[in-house]
Amino acid sequence: QVQLQESGPGLVKPSETLSLTCTVSGDSVSSDSHYWGWIRQPPGKGLEWIGYIYYNGGNNYSPSLKSRVTISIDASKNQFSLNLNSVTAADTAVYFCARVGDDYGDYARFDFWGQGIPVTVSS
Amino acid sequence: DIQMAQSPSSLSASVGDRVTITCRASQSIRNYLNWYQQKPGKAPKVLIYAASTFQSGVPSRFSGSGSGTDFTLTISNLQPEDFATYYCQQSYSTPHTFGQGTKLEI
Q1: Residue among A20, A8, A28, A115 nearest A72 (CA)
Q2: How many CB atoms lie within 10 A of CB A103?
Q3: I need a surface site. Which of A44, A89, B48, B72 has the fewest CB within 10 A?
Q4: How far is it, in rounded angstroms, from Cα B35 to Cα B86?
């Protein structure tokens, strides 16, 4: 069974960098069968797509976050990570990592999710 | 970006009812539409992808339809465990945007 687990600090100061890691078990982040993504959910609000990372290190980011976000893969640890710099209170949210399932490169959907990690931006 | 609009924002129903949630895209997304269910404090769970294809293990009382810009999620014979928030998501073009959610309440 595929499992994902987010880890990282729950409190980040404004203007600093939010760094989270997703550890994957039951699948390989370096396999070309799937790819991986991050989603966030501000308190009491809906889901926001952050971006994808592909097995070869290629990525695709939300235009609204593109200038501040980096998603990377560490195949040796079977992990992928999210870095979001210059954070403000608006970045306070639960952050989810997830696997992207698809049908031969089509019909992408998040088919396995981590439990989510709450992150607060505050001094 | 493609905008996704769900209606209604909230919905009250009873066990055994049949309910329909609508999702409208700001441009044609063909059938590149996913539906998720989220319960409080939990991660979302994918129910349907490609507008009408069941994710493995999803009960048959859930069904999806639509293409182009208009889509529906129908839940027949509502069960107590179905009371949750539902989100649509388009996977036609990145960013793969979500709708704002529909909260289904008892």
Answers
A1: A20
A2: 11
A3: A44
A4: 7
Q: Nearest chain A Cα to B40, which residue?
A: A44
The answer to whether the beta carbons of residues A18 and A122 sit under 8 Å apart is: no
pLDDT for residue A41: 98
Mutate to test the interface with A, among B48, B91, B92, B102 (most CBs of A within 10 A): B91
Q: Tell me what the pLDDT averaged over chain A comes to.
A: 95
Q: CA angle at residue A34 from A116 to B4, to 5 degrees?
A: 60
The H-assigned helical ranges of B9-78 are none
For the cut 90, the answer to whether the pLDDT of residue A56 exceeds it is no
Please answer whether residues A69 and A53 qualify as being in contact, where contact means their C-beta atoms are separated by less than 8 angstroms.
Answer: no
In which element (H, E) is residue B99 found? Answer: none
- Residue A62 forms contact with B (CB below 8 Å): yes
